[in-house]
Amino acid sequence: MDFATALLDETRAFGELVRAGDPALPVPTCPEWNLTQLFRHVGRGNRWAAQIVADRMDGPLDPRDVVDGKPPADLDAAVDWLNDGAQRLLDAVAQSGPDTVVWTFTGPRPAAWWIRRRLHEVTVHRADAALAVGVAPSEVAVSPELAADGISELLDLIPALALRHQSTPLAAGHSIHLHAADDGLGSAGEWTISPDAGDGSVRWAHEHGKGSVALRGPARDLLLVVTRRAAPADTDITVFGDEAVWQHWVDHTAF
After folding, report:
1. What is the DSSP secondary-structure string of 21-42?
2. Secondary structure of residue 195 in the 3-state scheme
3. Are residues 49 and 87 located together in one domain of the fold?
4. Do 163 and 221 reside in the same domain of the chain?
5. CA angle 219, 222, 224 (to 5 degrees)
6. CATH number at residue 121
7. Are 176 and 205 contained in the same domain?
8. Are residues 46 and 169 in the same domain?
9. Consecutive H or E run containing 239
C-alpha cells in the first residue's frame, strides 16, 4: 500500500466532510468533541508528527508547541491548512530520511512510521465525521486493503496501550479471531490474537484459528468495531463464541 498517497487522499476526504458539515455538530464517537474540534485535532496531529520528524526529536512534543497548530478562521483556508499539514509530514520524512529514528509513543521508530500512523488516525477520524453527519456504518467508505492494514496497525499498538492504561485486554486462556470476508485479502484479512507471556499484553499473527470469540465480516466493519466506532450489531459483523471476551477487549483497548 502507498501510505503517503493514502494519507493525502484520506486527509482531503476528511476535510471535505467537515467543509460540508455543521461546525457545531457533535461527534458521537468522540463524545467530548464537535466537528470543529475534531478537525483541529486531526490537522494539528499531522503537524505535530511532522515537527517531531523534521526536528528529529528523541522525546515527545507538547501539542501546544506545534508551529502553526491552529487553523485559520476562514473555512477554505482551514481546509488548505489541513491538507498542507499532511504534506508537511511527507516532506519531513523525505528530508530527514524515512529510516531516521525519531520519538514515537511506542518507543524510537523510523520516521516513516509516522506516515502509516497518521494515515490510520485520519481514516478513523474521517469515519467519525461521516458517522456524525448521518452516514450509516455500512456506508462509510474504506477500502478493504486500507481497513485491513488499519486493524493490523492497531494491534501493533496494543502493547503500548495496555501499558498506558495498566490494562489486560485479553485474559490468559482466551483468544480472539478476526476474519475479513472481502475477496482478495488472503492472509492479510485474518488475525488471531492471544495473550503474551504474562505481561498483560498480546501477540497476534495473520493466521486462521478458532478463538474464544470470532468476528467475521467486511474489513471496513471490522475496523469500525475494533476502533470502537460501531457495535457489531450495527454492522454486517457476525460474532461467534464468547461475546464477554470481546466486550472485555473493547473495554480495555481504548486509544
Report:
1. S-TT-B-TTSTT-BHHHHHHHH
2. strand
3. yes
4. yes
5. 110
6. 1.20.120.450
7. yes
8. no
9. strand 238-241
Give dist(CA 66, CA 197) in Å, integer: 39
Structural domain range at position 97: 3-135
Q: Are residues 112 and 233 in the same domain?
A: no
pLDDT (tens, 9 = 90+) of the chain, 255 residues, equals 999 999 999 999 999 999 999 999 999 999 999 999 999 999 999 999 999 999 999 999 999 999 999 999 999 999 999 999 999 999 999 999 999 999 999 999 999 999 999 999 999 999 999 999 999 999 999 999 999 999 999 999 988 877 777 778 998 899 999 999 999 999 999 999 999 876 667 899 999 988 999 999 999 999 999 999 999 999 999 999 999 999 999 998 887
pTM: 0.96
Asked if 7 and 127 sit in the same domain, the reply is yes
CATH number at residue 216: 3.30.1050.10
Place of cell 502493547: 159
Closest CA to 187 of 204, 203, 205, 206: 206
